[in-house]
Design a protein that fits this description.
It contains 14 helices and 25 strands. The protein has helices at about 15-30, 45-55, 70-75, 105-110, 125-140, 155-170, 200-215, 220-225, 270-275, 310-315, 315-325, 335-340, 450-465, 480-490, and strands spanning about 5-10, 35-40, 60, 85-90, 115-120, 145-155, 175-180, 190, 190-195, 255-260, 265, 280-285, 295-300, 300-305, 330-335, 345-350, 350-355, 360-365, 370-380, 390-400, 400-405, 415-420, 425, 430, 435.
Length: about 500
């Protein structure tokens, strides 16, 4: 399969990979090319910027969350509608969570047989840059490093020395030299860039990145390298058993997805998996909608509800509708920011904001991450979406933590074997057909999730149509807590 592609990698995080990747994508789009953007790793925010630059969804490729054949399948699915693929790496080229670097950008590049453009932060360095590049070349000769992009170059003299040094000692072409650029076109918060929905001048930032790429990068040579990538042979045969499970059944269960500036972290594959399993996706907003439409299920992803806490709190009708439907047994699945929204309240900058109150939890925030990295949890308690005994891989990144909770950790559905979780190495708050967790999962790594979400929503739909009380996967957990809490309020 001829699929022009290139990986943008670096020696460490914070080297400028996202801005260079966004600039490349935007520049090639201006040339009339269809660019397929990909982000290595679980990151949502960088993926949002890449998607905005490409004007199409960005798919994540993660060797921890999903098996190699699913990565190749996800990647090659974009081939028929793309002229080129740009993959932004994460952290340093060889960085991973184990000694073998199995989750590194380098292993992904080898899996995709993709050429790598290595971005180097050249601050206060000259010949040492060549030493670092040489080390990367020798560390794993199977990684196809095809050129170097110099970043944060001090001036023409500095650039000249760097070019000659890299080309002489490393025998690699210099594919661009970017000077130190003043100004904050891409503001940062928490663990990276500010999400695009919160960025009023995102289009201006994209244009600045494109201008940078066109002025300082050798776009023609980068394109030639991408087009010279070897044919990519897909995994032998991949059976997508989750596709069209409900194709012959009508009506399809309607699953709402809260997607707005407060809740924006969704992998495209997760929504695609729900649709493939038979769901009709309905987009709703917790910020602007007064209530929920007719739904058979609800998916609340991550985001930054804290920065929109006042608006979420003021939309009382929407909050009350979520709570009411959760009590009636509406299937709800929530991750991270969605978990916080289902809590009693959150405290932000000293102010307490009421949330939906599905769970009796008060969340607070710290300046340092409370949970950050890959997660593994084992399912131990009954719940609507995972069989007990199943092991699920995901990731978490949050600055929030539990200030108060009226529950007990042994009631939580998951035992966390890697990561932080909700409390005491446990996660998974369950109430009736609502399940909420700090972990984000990827549908390609956990294909059973979409099937279970749609099946639970379909059962709820059928029970409503027959005038029956919807079945609840867990009727007891949390019920006594709500009774106590409501009595205290009265």
């Amino acid at each position: 399969m001829a699929f022009p592609r290139i990986v943008i990698a670096a020696l460490r995080g914070g080297s400028g990979k996202t801005i260079v990747s966004v600039g490349l994508i935007a520049s090639w789009r201006k040339r009339g090319m269809a660019v397929a953007p990909f982000k290595k790793g679980p990151d949502f925010i960088d993926a949002g910027w890449l998607a905005l630059a490409a004007s199409r969804p960005c798919h994540n490729l993660d060797t921890f969350l999903m098996p190699p054949n699913q990565i190749i399948l996800s990647f090659t699915r974009q081939n028929p509608v793309s002229d080129i693929a740009v993959v932004e790496g994460n952290r340093g080229l060889y960085d991973g969570i184990d000694l073998e670097g199995s989750t590194s950008t380098s292993e992904l590049a080898k899996l995709l047989r993709a050429p790598v453009a290595l971005l180097i932060d050249c601050t206060k360095s000259t010949r040492t840059v060549a030493a670092m590049v040489s080390g990367c070349l020798q560390f794993d000769p199977e990684v196809s490093i095809c050129g170097v992009i110099l970043n944060r170059v001090a001036g023409p003299r500095h650039e000249s020395i760097l070019r000659k040094t890299v080309e002489t000692y490393c025998k690699l072409p210099v594919l661009g030299a970017i000077p130190k650029i003043k100004g904050e076109a891409f503001p940062e918060r928490h663990m990276g860039l500010v999400p695009t929905p919160e960025h009023d001048w995102s289009e201006e930032s994209i244009q600045k990145a494109a201008d940078m790429a066109e002025e300082y990068l050798d776009l023609d040579r980068l394109l030639a390298i991408a087009r010279g990538a070897p044919d990519l042979t897909a995994a032998s045969e991949i059976l997508d058993k989750e596709t069209d499970l409900y194709a012959e059944k009508a009506p399809r269960p309607r699953i709402g997805v809260i997607r707005d500036a407060a809740f924006q972290f969704y992998y495209p594959e997760n929504l695609e998996a729900l649709e493939a399993a038979g769901a009709e996706i309905v987009m709703v907003s917790a910020l602007s909608d007064s209530g929920l439409p007719r739904l058979d299920g609800l998916y609340i992803g991550g985001g930054f509800p804290e920065t929109h806490a006042q608006a979420l709190a003021e939309n009382k009708g929407f909050r009350q509708e979520v709570r009411r439907l959760a009590e009636k047994g509406l299937p709800i699945y929530a991750e991270c920011g969605g978990l916080m929204y289902l809590g009693e309240s959150l405290v932000w900058d000293g102010v307490t904001y009421p949330m939906t109150g599905v769970f009796p939890v008060v969340f607070g925030f710290s300046k340092r991450p409370a949970g950050h990295g890959y997660t593994i949890f084992e399912v131990e308690k009954p719940n609507p979406y995972f069989e007990p005994g199943v092991q699920v891989r995901g990731h978490e990144f949050h600055y929030s933590s539990v200030l108060s909770w009226e529950g007990k950790t042994e009631e939580l559905a998951f035992r966390v074997t890697r990561g932080t979780g909700f409390a005491d190495k446990r996660d998974g708050l369950c109430y009736k057909n609502t399940l909420a967790t700090y972990s984000h999962l990827h549908a390609l790594g956990t294909p059973s999730w979409a099937k279970a979400m749609v099946e639970t929503s379909s059962s709820y739909q059928k029970d409503k149509a027959q005038g029956l009380r919807p079945k609840n996967a867990n009727m007891s957990q949390g019920r006594g807590l709500h009774v106590i809490r409501d009595a205290q309020k009265k």
